[in-house]
Amino acid sequence: MEQLLQHLRNLGFTELESKVMVCLAQQSTQSGYEVAKRLGVSRSNVYATLQRLLTRGVVQLTPGEPARYSMLPVKELTRMIAGQIDASLSYLEQAMPSSREESPSFHIVEGERNVIELINRELDKAGEEIVAGIWREEAAWFRQKLENAEQRGVRVLWSFEGLEEDGHPGIRLLKGGISGRKFWMVIDRHWCIVGMRGDGIPAQALVTEHPLMAELLLQHFSQEIILYEMENDLGQELIRRYGQGYTRILDRYLPGIIPAD
After folding, report:
1. 112 and 148 within one domain
2. Which residue in 3, 7, 217, 228 has a CA-CA distance of 20 to 30 Å to 238?
3. Whole-prediction pTM value?
4. 127 lies in the same domain as 83
5. Residue 234 included in any domain
6. Which residues form the Transcription regulator TrmB N-terminal domain (predicted)?
7. Which stretches of the chain are DSSP H helices?
């Protein structure tokens, strides 16, 4: 019941309007007095609510003594609401003023649900290319959306962060590392998201369309590809010359950087 009421609220109905609608749907026709009694709400509030619902066209009135009310058939109701929403969204796209910023902005998205919903919306809009770096634990969030994108012709390139197939971790660039799992994504070479989450750590992400961020992430991905190919071809030779995890190179430029344990 609560889930149904929540969806009605999401569609713009008030708490009492939602309860009255559900109450009317549970029985063919009822008077305002009967609805008020079943809900335990004052008759004046119920009659005012019924009047608003009549005005919106979601409730039908049968005149009489007393007058009786009934819900619009559910299929007719959903078609009507869908039409109203489509019309409002169409008008919004055309009429809403859009501020022109001199440079792309950055903003933060917090909470796992908000991050997942945002990325899924952007994946649905991807037209040409998706490039991503993600841990296996988070890959389940987007696997279906990525598969759907591939099926409609979008090129999808992604790498797994963290442990590799053989169990060896990547290089940790700071002693102690960062607690949590990072993820990033570039869609159509302009929309970017960089974030992290982990056990006990709420998901948080930075979102931008700044071209510099897209360039940095794509360069990072290209470097990973180059290293992957080189390590496959020259693995032992690279270890002999540069040390495990390239420590000899790292110590030369940034002493103290060590491979992950």
Report:
1. yes
2. 217
3. 0.56
4. no
5. yes
6. 8-74
7. 2-10, 15-25, 32-39, 43-56, 74-95, 112-125, 136-151, 211-242, 247-253
